[in-house]
Amino acid sequence: MPCSVVFRSAALLVAALSLIQAVKIEVHGKDNKTCIYAILSVNFTVIYEGNGTMENATFRLPDSLSTNGSTCGGNNSAPLLNMGFGTGHSLSLNFSRTDGKFSGDVLTFTYNTSDAKLFPGAKNQSVKHVAVNSLMESVPLNTIYTCRSVKAIASEPVVMVFWHVGIQAFVENGTISKNESFCKADVSTTVAPITTQTTSTVVPIPTKPSPDLPAVGNYTIKNGSDPCLLANMGLQLNITNTDNQTRVININSNSTASGHCGDKHSVLLLEDTDATIQFHFFVEQAKFFLKEVKVSIRLLVNGSTTTFNCSNGNLKYWQAFVGSSYMCRNEQQLVVTDQLAINTFNVWVQPFEIKNGTFSRAEECSLDDDSILIPIIVGAALAGLIVIVVIAYVIGRRRSYAGYQTL
Ligand SMILES: *[C@@H]1O[C@H](CO)[C@@H](O)[C@H](O)[C@H]1NC(C)=O
Ligand SMILES: *[C@@H]1O[C@H](CO)[C@@H](O)[C@H](O)[C@H]1NC(C)=O
Ligand SMILES: *[C@@H]1O[C@H](CO)[C@@H](O)[C@H](O)[C@H]1NC(C)=O
Ligand SMILES: *[C@@H]1O[C@H](CO)[C@@H](O)[C@H](O)[C@H]1NC(C)=O
Ligand SMILES: *[C@@H]1O[C@H](CO)[C@@H](O)[C@H](O)[C@H]1NC(C)=O
Ligand SMILES: *[C@@H]1O[C@H](CO)[C@@H](O)[C@H](O)[C@H]1NC(C)=O
Ligand SMILES: *[C@@H]1O[C@H](CO)[C@@H](O)[C@H](O)[C@H]1NC(C)=O
Ligand SMILES: *[C@@H]1O[C@H](CO)[C@@H](O)[C@H](O)[C@H]1NC(C)=O
Ligand SMILES: *[C@@H]1O[C@H](CO)[C@@H](O)[C@H](O)[C@H]1NC(C)=O
Ligand SMILES: *[C@@H]1O[C@H](CO)[C@@H](O)[C@H](O)[C@H]1NC(C)=O
Ligand SMILES: *[C@@H]1O[C@H](CO)[C@@H](O)[C@H](O)[C@H]1NC(C)=O
Ligand SMILES: *[C@@H]1O[C@H](CO)[C@@H](O)[C@H](O)[C@H]1NC(C)=O
């Protein structure tokens, strides 16, 4: 099977410490149905006064949480997610809804410096609060807000770093939505547009946004100190899940590049926090080409993390003569499997025989090639000529026929 999706429950994830440490919480109503669902990872840094010096307490939101104090809300009260942990610490978020959308309202972090485990040597032992209201944007009801990107929220003397977040409040019928509303940071990994949201316009955020074009990353693999593989390109994955939902994900242009070069086989490996992509180039009959692609990416599906793995070792893309480079300025779609396609932008690659650390003469893809227009124009002209000749012939025949009639 070329593609596989591995579903993991959040609990298993927590066990797999080196992977994503996400905490999953559900708040149930009187009818025992889920009304608030959240999965998230948080790192806290709190600066506090110790024995004569300022100290930093750094800790993570633990996976054993109490939802005591949480409420589903009612006609006159807002839903509240309260995550209590340790001795007197808690992180809470209440929610509001308007015009078919919901959003997180006030995020309150409460900490108790008398906890000597987290705040050793604290001078003032007391309960403190910080409140902010910038955790999540408003998203349509019956969708789950998701944000894989890292988001830091600072409010003196606390810094909270959130990542791998999925939140749904006002859950209907106790069923967590299958539709995600991606946070802005996930949608555009390239440019973070300045949000010009006005409260009067009610434009629902699409649940399947088409992201901006990916930024072009310039990747170099070196053999010793000499570049031996160069690749400049913008990459976008188009994944069709088993549930037939498509996701379009831009690859971070800052992904770290590694790999190796050989005479007949070179490898480029791009790694980012959630995605790794391998490109295998081979040489055959003086030409190189992209033969194999392997992709592994972590996705959030219905609040649980899934790892999507996909590969195809029987491709033939990006062909050019060894000693030259391959270029395609136009967008290309590399179909890897029926579940994965890679959209590429401004590709310029040379996996073999780099001279002087720069690209050699480029062989351009046919998409870029204007000369393809010439045969089209010539063909069109010929076709036009034939039509004219046929019309002239028909008219000529008619004329001569009509001529006979009058005589
Ligand atoms: C609520 O659901 C859980 C399992 O989902 C069950 O163990 C529990 O007994 C239920 N409680 C009520 C009051 O129905
Ligand atoms: C959270 O903290 C751990 C160490 O406590 C660190 O390894 C990890 O990189 C941090 N995550 C983020 C997103 O800052
Ligand atoms: C605080 O610091 C002083 C001197 O640096 C030391 O004598 C004292 O034992 C410290 N107290 C605590 C509670 O660590
Ligand atoms: C505490 O953290 C801040 C910000 O991360 C850092 O600038 C500072 O040096 C740290 N202080 C201590 C005592 O570790
Ligand atoms: C929940 O909180 C209330 C007060 O806010 C407290 O009396 C009660 O013991 C708590 N329950 C649990 C299970 O922690
Ligand atoms: C909320 O309002 C609806 C009608 O507006 C009413 O039927 C329902 O009982 C109310 N619920 C509560 C908890 O007050
Ligand atoms: C959320 O809680 C804060 C205080 O903790 C309050 O000011 C705010 O009005 C609440 N939001 C809603 C929608 O009730
Ligand atoms: C919840 O249940 C009602 C009635 O069964 C249905 O009309 C509605 O579409 C359901 N909502 C969701 C989000 O499944
Ligand atoms: C990439 O790295 C540059 C420089 O380190 C930084 O300015 C930019 O924000 C990064 N872009 C992304 C998408 O992380
Ligand atoms: C990447 O390479 C392109 C040429 O392919 C160049 O125009 C661009 O400036 C380079 N970008 C960086 C960040 O070096
Ligand atoms: C992603 O793939 C689907 C199915 O192949 C296609 O309909 C859609 O247009 C593609 N989207 C992009 C942005 O390539
Ligand atoms: C490559 O480097 C060699 C020696 O440094 C130099 O003679 C040659 O002109 C360079 N070629 C190009 C295309 O820069």
Give a verbal description of the structure.
This protein has 407 residues and is mainly beta. It folds into three domains: 23-197, Porin; 203-368, Porin (Beta Barrel); 373-402. It has three helices and 26 strands. The termini are far apart. Residues 7-19 and 189-209 have low confidence and may be disordered. Residues 142, 172-173, 175 line the site of one 2-acetamido-2-deoxy-beta-D-glucopyranose. The site of one 2-acetamido-2-deoxy-beta-D-glucopyranose has 3 residues, from loops.
Can you summarize this structure?
This protein is mostly beta strands.
Strand content: over 45%
**Form type:** extended
Number of domains: 3
Q: By helix and strand content, what is the structural category?
A: mainly beta
CATH topology of the largest domain: Porin
- Architecture per CATH nomenclature, i.e. the level-2 architecture of the largest domain: Beta Barrel
CATH class (first level) name of the largest domain: Mainly Beta
How would the blueprint of this fold be written?
Elements: E1 3-7, H1 10-15, E2 23-28, E3 34-49, E4 54-60, E5 80-85, E6 89-98, E7 101-112, E8 127-132, E9 139-140, E10 144-147, E11 151-155, E12 158-168, E13 180-182, H2 184-187, E14 217-223, E15 226-240, E16 246-250, E17 256-260, E18 265-271, E19 275-284, E20 287-301, E21 304-312, E22 317-321, E23 325-328, E24 332-337, E25 340-350, E26 362-364, H3 373-406
Parallel strand pairs: 10-13, 23-26
Antiparallel strand pairs: 1-21, 2-3, 3-4, 3-12, 5-6, 6-7, 7-8, 7-9, 10-12, 11-12, 14-15, 15-16, 15-25, 17-18, 18-19, 19-20, 20-21, 20-22, 23-25, 24-25
The structure holds 2-acetamido-2-deoxy-beta-D-glucopyranose (12 copies).
